[in-house]
């Protein structure tokens, strides 16, 4: 089990118009922590700081007690995996795609990785660009999991998928989290949030509006927070 | 070896009839290109006369080589400036292109003079350097623009590779390869087609000037290989330099204003 991410007075985004404005928050790395909030609230901006695809303009990001800037970025990114909103598919077959994460990956290991995300072994030799949206996103989960990350970041990975594919990926996320890979999951789908989240961080207009479990946030005094977490 | 071939002023004037043909076509089909055509021909005439006069100054065996090398430096500076003007949005394109042209001149001319393919003298330095730099220009601009565009167009793929723990050079390798191929393939195709589809200018010029075809072929071959080597060198230096500019020391893909 790894310690949480901690943002300390973090300012991020373009210097002239920061998206995150002096955010201080703790993001637990256990189960699924959801980042909720309206579009433009800074959810994706925050997520990209956690594996150093971007650095904050100001402030500090700490993971498991260590300032992220002290990590070698390549090592950090293999420990903090990431899947994106639109599944980025590399050229070549599915096996070629998996081998980007682990060069020399055997077919047997690739098959096991695909099985873990509910994809058939037959897909190994399929041209990756020909996969459906749901298959491509699951392949991206398999690819990210091959580096054996301690935590997985997911930036609205189901937003461009149909209902069935979305449910499949949600089951996968719950399985991965239950299997010991905590996730930080960005979503503005309230129903999904309620199906997945163990802990929620609500962002509004570049700042943290609330954090806590769904039970806690359902009775939050701010009606906007209650609306954003789908409190009945 | 070289026959007395001097087309003279009358000959030059006669070749101008061909310009009249082009003008006639423009007038006949109402292309509106007459002024542009005349201006282009006049510019070519003046530029070549000036270059011819300047070359005359340095090809004399008694002239010190320093003038030839100064000319080479001016060519490198002008090529760097031209590259910068054509790819202003690319970061650090001016110093990188100056480095690329200088490296190309050193490598290719170093081979030609070092192995005694040509004598090191004013008559050879400037024309060969002109071939090296002139032919590298288009490929250098092309590779610069393509690399820069690829970093923006394929940001999602590059960042996906970075997020898997690849280094920046690994993450950008597919785009680097494609850009280099795009810049090099036309030159390779030209090299392949020589003698079949087209007789190259240097060879035709030598034959017209009275040089034996066999010798003209040997000179042309060395020129073709020189061009290939220079294009490969400039594009390699540019691609490596630009790749470094695209990423931060924390192995992050920079964001650029690509509207320029």
Structure description:
The complex is a heterodimer of chains A (232) and B (260). With 232 residues, chain A is of the alpha/beta class. Chain A has one domain (30-41, 72-228): Rossmann fold (3-Layer(aba) Sandwich), CATH 3.40.50. Chain A has nine helices and ten strands. Chain A has helices spanning 43-50, 73-79, 94-101, 107-116, 133-145, 163-178, 190-196, 214-217, 223-228; strands at residues 5-12, 20-27, 32-36, 58-63, 66-67, 80-83, 151-155, 183-186, 199-204, 207-212. In chain A, the strands form two sheets. A six-stranded mixed β-sheet of chain A has the order 6-7-8-3-9-10, with helices on both faces. A four-stranded antiparallel β-sheet of chain A has the order 2-1-4-5. In chain A, strand 7, helix 6 (163-178) and strand 8 form a beta-alpha-beta unit. In chain A, helix 5 runs parallel beside helix 6. Chain A is globular and about 50 Å long. Chain B is mainly α and 260 residues long. Chain B folds into two domains: 1-59, no CATH class; 64-246, Multidrug efflux transporter AcrB transmembrane fold (Up-down Bundle). Chain B contains ten helices and no strands. The longest helix of chain B has 34 residues, at 213-246. Classes of the chains: A alpha/beta (232), B mainly alpha (260). The interface between A and B is medium-sized, with 24 and 17 residues.
Helical fraction of chain A equals: 25-40%
Q: Quickly name the level 1 CATH class of chain A.
A: Alpha Beta
User: What is the number of strand segments of chain B?
Assistant: 0
Distance separating the two termini of chain B: 53 Å
Q: What is the number of helices of chain B?
A: 10
Radius of gyration of chain A: 18 Å
Question: What is the C-alpha radius of gyration of chain B, as a whole number of Å?
Answer: 22 Å
Helix content of chain B: over 70%
What quaternary form is this?
heterodimer
Label the structural class of chain B: mainly alpha
**Terminal Cα span of chain A:** 33 Å
Flag low-confidence runs of chain B. none
Q: Write the element-wise H/E pattern of chain A from the N-terminal end onward.
A: EEEHEEHEHHHEHEHEEHH
Q: Give the overall form of chain A.
A: globular
């Amino acid at each position: 089990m790894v310690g949480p991410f901690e943002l300390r007075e973090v300012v991020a985004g373009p210097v002239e118009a920061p998206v995150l404005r002096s955010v201080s928050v703790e993001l637990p790395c256990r189960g699924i922590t959801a980042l909720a909030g309206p579009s433009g609230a800074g959810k994706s901006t925050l997520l990209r700081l956690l594996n150093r695809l971007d650095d904050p303009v100001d402030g500090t990001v700490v993971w498991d007690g260590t300032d992220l800037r002290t990590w070698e970025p390549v090592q950090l990114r293999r420990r903090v995996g990431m899947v994106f909103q639109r599944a980025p598919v590399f050229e070549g077959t599915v096996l070629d795609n998996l081998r980007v994460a682990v060069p020399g990956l055997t077919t047997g290991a690739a098959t096991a990785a695909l099985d873990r995300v509910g994809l058939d072994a037959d897909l190994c030799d399929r041209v990756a660009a020909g996969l459906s949206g749901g298959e491509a996103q699951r392949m991206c989960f398999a690819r990210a999991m091959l580096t054996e990350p301690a935590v997985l970041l997911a930036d609205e990975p189901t937003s461009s998928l149909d209902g069935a594919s979305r449910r499949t990926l949600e089951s996968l996320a719950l399985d991965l989290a239950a299997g010991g890979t905590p996730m930080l999951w960005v979503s503005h789908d309230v129903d999904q949030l309620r199906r997945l989240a163990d802990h929620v961080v609500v962002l509004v207009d570049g700042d943290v509006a609330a954090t806590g479990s769904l039970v806690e946030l359902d009775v939050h005094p701010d009606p906007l927070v209650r609306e954003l977490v789908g409190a009945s | 070896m070289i026959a007395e071939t001097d087309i003279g002023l009358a000959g030059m004037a006669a070749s101008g009839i061909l310009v009249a043909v082009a003008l006639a076509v423009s007038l006949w089909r109402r292309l509106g290109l007459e002024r542009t055509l005349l201006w282009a021909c006049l510019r070519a005439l003046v530029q070549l006369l000036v270059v011819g006069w300047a070359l005359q100054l340095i090809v004399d065996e008694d002239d010190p080589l320093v003038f030839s090398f100064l000319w080479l430096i001016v060519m490198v500076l002008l090529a760097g400036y031209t590259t910068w003007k054509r790819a202003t949005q690319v970061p650090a394109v001016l110093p990188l292109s100056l480095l690329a042209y200088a490296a190309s001149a050193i490598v290719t001319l170093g081979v030609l003079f070092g192995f005694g393919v040509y004598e090191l003298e004013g008559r050879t330095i400037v024309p060969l350097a002109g071939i090296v730099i002139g032919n590298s220009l288009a490929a250098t601009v092309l590779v610069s623009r393509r690399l820069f565009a690829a970093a923006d167009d394929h940001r999602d793929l590059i960042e996906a590779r970075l997020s898997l723990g690849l280094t920046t050079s690994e993450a950008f390798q597919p785009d680097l390869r494609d850009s280099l191929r795009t810049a090099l393939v036309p030159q390779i195709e030209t090299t392949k087609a020589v003698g079949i589809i087209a007789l190259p200018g240097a060879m035709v010029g030598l034959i017209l000037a009275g040089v034996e075809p066999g010798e003209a072929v040997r000179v042309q071959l060395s020129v073709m290989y020189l061009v290939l080597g220079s294009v490969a060198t400039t594009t390699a230096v540019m691609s490596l330099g630009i790749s470094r500019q695209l990423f931060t020391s924390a192995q992050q893909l920079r964001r650029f204003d690509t509207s320029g």
